[in-house]
Specification:
single chain; 7 helices; elongated
Amino acid sequence: MATMSTADLLEVFKNMTVLELNEFLKAFEEEFGVTAAAPVAVAAAAPAGGGGEAAVEEQDEFDVVLVAAGDKKIQVIKEVRSIVSGLGLKEAKDLVDSAPKPVLEKVSKEDAEKAKAQLEGAGASVELK
């Protein structure tokens, strides 16, 4: 099968009827075990202050917690310094030595995943909370 660009896929969807799109959505959900309706429900519940289970599932702030430095402690210290602006060498070393310890708090999912990837790339164990 030839790979299709996002623009090609959008063109295909534009030419489908609502019924065809609905059938596609059901097949997609079954194939990948996902539900397309969940994000819409969360978006609707969050502004209303629903506080229900859907709002709990969709976090918008994350803490990046360094669980363990691993074998490459110096690399992890360097990554911590690059992630946390204004952190000196001693402070970064102290943070790594006192693991488990939060590296970043209340950051976006994108920033948290980026920091996690950087730290794990240096050999550290990291959790997002």
